[in-house]
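Researcher: I'm preparing a figure for a lab meeting and need a structural model of a single chain. I don't have an experimental structure, so a prediction will have to do for now. The sequence is pasted below. Please return the structure as tokens so I can convert it later.
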Amino acid sequence: MQYEFLKELGIKPVNQGACSGPGTWSSTTGAGVLESFNPATGELIAKVNLCSEADYEQVLTDMQTAFIEWRQVPAPKRGEIVRQMGDALRAKKDALGNLVAL
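Model: Understood. Here is the structure written out token by token.
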């Protein structure tokens, strides 16, 4: 992989297109492929397997369930989780900046 920062972000040469929770990615491979290219050089950055309608329906179902669980978490705990998410993003800010700059 030419762009080393992609590894830091967990981006592989071929990626799945829909996630409905930690480690829960769609497994569809027959719905087409999206190829992402560096607009400055025309080089392929990575590919994403597109998802089926059933994949997206599953994501919606999973997210509706997660919403019900999330709203029962006390506000201070939710705030702490959001703070941790911000910390995780800041820890990867250089790699994310490189990705956005492509």
